[in-house]
Amino acid sequence: MIADSNENKYQICVVTGTRAEYGLLKELLFKLRDDSRCKLTLVVTGSHLVESFGNTQKEIMEDGFEDYIKVPIPLEDDSKSGMAKTTGIAMQKFSELFTDYKPDICIVLGDRFEIFAVAAAAHLIGIPVAHISGGDVTEGAVDDAMRHCITKLSSLHFPGCEQSAKRIIQMGEQPDRVFNVGEPGVENCLKVTCMSRRELADNLNFEGIMGDYAVVTFHPVTMENSTAAYQLHELIGAMEEFPDMSYIITKANADAEGRIVNDIWQQETEKHANWKLVSSLGMVRYLSAVKYAKAVIGNSSSGIYEVPSMGIPTVNIGDRQKGRIMAESIVSCFSEKEKITASIKEVLKDDFQQKAKNIVPMYGDGTTSAQIVSHVMEYLLKISGTTKKHFYDIDFVLAEKG
């Protein structure tokens, strides 16, 4: 069924709630916007609309997506109960939106609580959901369970690797609805035109870029209780062991304890002339910063997906990304100063730097967005108008208890 018979186009809704997620969706959005078969509606929510998180809707407008729908949700309370309450409010707001606006399909990416609210509202109202980057495992974050919930609420699946595709099928999703398209972040790395080092230094007003530097992103580990401040201070202690290294630091997302992290970064950056703190770099500046860096340090998924494909080492701290497939250019360590320091020393060695440059991307070939458009259109032509699906059973034998 085509929702808009007057225009004879499929109504496609894409929702974005964070700066990082929008960067991953950008190529897909451009392709959907330019596809004559589609009427794209972009819905902007979450930290995009909050000044303290960089008001990153500005980047969306700069890309030409000015006619979008805003769905503001409260992010002032970054406690775990605050996240739960915000999820409920987001579900209510998106239920109201989807009652009046019923697209043929809603496309979401990732695993955040606001995206779970979107998927739940769409599913209950009868709008099919297409989910990008499902099937991953991240044992240190509540996002892990959110991601799997979104999978079960979705009708179409676009995981980033074969292992994730198998997990989605293991959860009972039909194999002919699951497509290993690679990660959109890898596509960005392979296609984006980066700024020169000089342009980036001038843009950020930070001369540290002209020497050795690292890019740092640290998010709270949401499956742990009140560990953000302690773990961050351990990281800061390790960073101070390299006084000749400069650092570009990006603020944490709107997770539980995220404001604690950002407040500490603000205080510490004022003490260090060789540190630069930014709310958001955006896709081009971020990838440009990674391109010239000696390493990426922290616990962001970009250190697992995008960074290895750019030939740069990653120091992955703690359990937030535990469970993802990791390239040999990634060194994982506990959230302790000594362990982090040792890991930074390891990735700065000449032989490790050279090894990182020879890594083959593990999450796709750079055609992710084109594949998604093709599979979405094929799905709409065949199955549009229903969220009905069958549970796919896998025959196996349970181990005996004893």
Task: Walk me through this protein's architecture.
The protein is α/β, with parallel strands linked by helices and 402 residues long. It contains 15 helices and twelve strands. The chain has two domains: 10-181 and 367-383, Rossmann fold (3-Layer(aba) Sandwich), CATH 3.40.50.2000; 191-357, Glycogen Phosphorylase B (Rossmann fold, 3-Layer(aba) Sandwich). The protein has helices at residues 19-34, 57-62, 80-100, 113-125, 143-153, 162-170, 184-191, 197-204, 228-239, 258-269, 282-292, 306-309, 337-348, 350-357, 368-383, and strands at residues 10-16, 38-45, 69-71, 105-109, 129-132, 156-158, 213-217, 246-250, 275-278, 295-298, 314-317, 330-333. A six-stranded parallel beta sheet has the order 3-2-1-4-5-6, sandwiched between helices. Strands 9-8-7-10-11-12 form a six-stranded parallel beta sheet, with helices on both faces. Helix 4 runs parallel beside helix 5 (143-153) and helix 9 runs parallel beside helix 10 (258-269). The longest helix is centred in the N-terminal third of the chain and has 21 residues, at 80-100. The relative contact order is 0.14.
CATH class division of the largest domain:
Alpha Beta
CATH topology of the largest domain: Rossmann fold
Number of distinct beta strands: 12
The oligomeric state is: single chain
* Helical residues, percent: 40-55%
The radius of gyration computed from the alpha-carbon positions, rounded to a whole number of angstroms, is: 21 Å
**Sheet with most strands: strand arrangement:** 3-2-1-4-5-6
β-sheet strand percentage = 5-15%
Mean pLDDT: 91
Order of helices and strands: EHEHEHEHEHEHHHEHEHEHEHEEHHH
Globally, the shape reads: globular
Distance between the termini: 53 Å
- Helix/strand-derived category reads alpha/beta
Unreliable spans are 1-6
In DSSP terms (H or I, runs of 4 or more residues), the helix count works out at 15
User: How many domains would you count in the coordinates?
Assistant: 2
Largest β sheet strand count, sense and barrel closure: 6 strands, parallel
Q: What is the CATH architecture descriptor of the largest domain?
A: 3-Layer(aba) Sandwich
CATH level 4 superfamily of the largest domain: Glycogen Phosphorylase B
